[in-house]
Request: fold
Amino acid sequence: MNGYGGSVLTVNLTTGEGVKKPLDEKLAARYLGGCGFGAYFMNRVVDAKVDAFSPDNALMVAPGLFVGTAVPTGGKTSFFSKSPLTGGWGEGVMGGRIGLSLKQAGYDMLILTGKAQKLSYLLINDNEVAIKSAEHLQGATTRDTADAIKEDEGKDVIVAGIGMAGEKLVRFAVIDCEDRQSGRGGIGAVMGSKNLKAIAVRGTHDIPVANPEKMYRVMAEAYTKLKESPAFQDDGKYGTGEFLEWMNKEKGTFPTRNWREGVFDRRQQIDPYYWAPRFAIKNKGCVQCTKPCGKAFVMEKFDGSLDGIEYETLFSLGGNCGIEDVEYVARANELCDLHGMDTISAGGVVGLVMDLYENGILGKEELGVDATFGNGEALLELIEKMARREGIGDLLAEGVKRIAEKIDSGAEAYAVHVRGMEPPAYDVRGIKGMALAFMTSPRGACHLRSGAYALELTGKFWKFEGVDRLSSRDKGYEIAQMENFMAVYDSLGVCKFSRGIYLLNFADMLDAVTGKPLSEDELVTIGERICTLKHIFNIKAGWKREDCRLPEKIHRPIPEGAAKGSFVSTEEEREMLDDYFAARGWDRNGIPGKKRLEELDIAEFME
Amino acid sequence: MPLELPYPPIFIRNEIRRGLPRIIQFIRHIPQPKYYKLFFHFIAMYVKAIPEKCCGCVMCEVVCSMKHWNVVNSYRSGIRVEKKNVIEDVPFVCSHGHLCNFECIDACKFDAMKKNDAGIVYVDYENCTGCRACERACPLHAVWIHEKKAYKCDLCGGDPECVKFCSQDALVVEV
Reply:
């Protein structure tokens, strides 16, 4: 099959058996790849009611359709599982080479079920599958794991593994491949619960495309477009945090000190315009990327280096914890990477702890550190404890929602989460469309399932114009369309940072890769099918409309800055949700109507 | 202050560093009837990799295999990036005699590794048996064997595509 590896591999880790099945062509045409295949197979293979850590839960890896073709910025791979953090749909996208090598080995989908007897790693060598002991790697960092496996199996295997946090079942552990992380919502912990330390893949087959000459031409065109775009310069020089100052000063929507404020007053040092020229030595890119936004950051105060710091991490470990010294943020980021933890969730937890400490709910005898906002040493120590589940870390590793439930005594008012997921760096009090997107995203508070922040903040994108970020009107259709848009990007495996350049004009690329061009409308329908399937998985896992609610802090106005006084009221919340369900063709309780499901041809999943 | 001597240009520096063996090798590889091309042999171009700039996106591998074989497969590429750690991504690519002494040509027993009039070292796939002699001999680790065939840079006939698609300018044509 052109553009595809051609088969689906299912490995039962309990018995060590692997089953290789050819990929159904109809399935490929209806779901494209990546997150589309994930949505289909998660509903088919996983019983949504099982516990996330039980052996019946599955861990899936699916490279996007454009992975392993010559489409620039099309190198994203998705990981799926039932999330231990939200108890629903879990998904993560990364730009490591694991997807490329999986596809070169001939697999468009890797499904791992069961549980290995002892800590081990999975080796996929084209057609051979082996489960090998990884007991000597117990507690090793993600980088050491990759190095050790490469030493045993050869330099050319690509390793995606977990660190200490995944082994200890930290509920927001992630999977790491070549310092690219994936799996917000604890997919790394699911991997740890399966006693799987790493997946190592060597794929040596060709990936055929339908029309190589056209492919080459399309690649050259896309490359020129990307390189000439202004984003190439900005991202290239300052990374994704380039708009941090703009978010603070002009929009006033940079959540600070556990969402107390919308402007971080001590942001001078965490601004990339300050640190990029001083600490970053070069750019780092995902596979197939021609506009890299990562930075190779070498620290001076500490011994180490990392790929970062991204905008979200500048918020979560910087502004959200009140840290002004960028080197502490970098060190905390490196610790999260080494142990395999999600930086947004880790920062959200530390922010909550600092807030509770300052408000006298948690004391120094419990924490062991002086956890005031801005204390960098405390941040590092709490992250280390969290990853190892030592002392208070055992509680912190459960995520914001469970911490607030266990501490009780009014802690719920300080906990910022949607369905258990810690939110990213967009203060939704001043971006109301994003408030809706947080509520409706299938994996809890997430900015990437809709990507509507750019549309809301600049006012226009794609087919929308004149959007007002401070109004809650007509957001339903907008967010639903943006979610469909982004589902297409995830299934094609294209980077979301090139959405301003590609929009949905993939007809030429699809023609070159698979020989079947798809128009914008057809792609949006596929996107809607994928979004609805993810929602169906959540419903089966026990999702209810009442779960879609914003944390209490969002109901209080922003104290100062450009968005001063703005907040989301409960009425607005209800109104926007109704609007969204209507736009989706779902009923008032968020249950998809039979008619819409039949139109999308997925009615059989709802039974 | 000590007197600073003028720094000689790169090809003279290289010649000084390599010394006699390089000159002997060089004369051995001149196609005999075409003496007039001697000067061009001396400055044949090559793709120079700058690891300090490489971002590890492997776009060069994708483009190379696409250009030569119409598929994407990093194992069929004539340039490969090794991601050593967070800050080290090292592209390996043939220097066409600029940084070596044509060890691959000497090592090949089947006359599969050849040099053309323009000074480009290429693989003659009719003769190649995949014996790995060139892979072992190459001091720059820029020749690889995949499925019994050798793969290396052939400069795309004088207009290297990987250089065009390197967004970080980590690959440059050097003469």
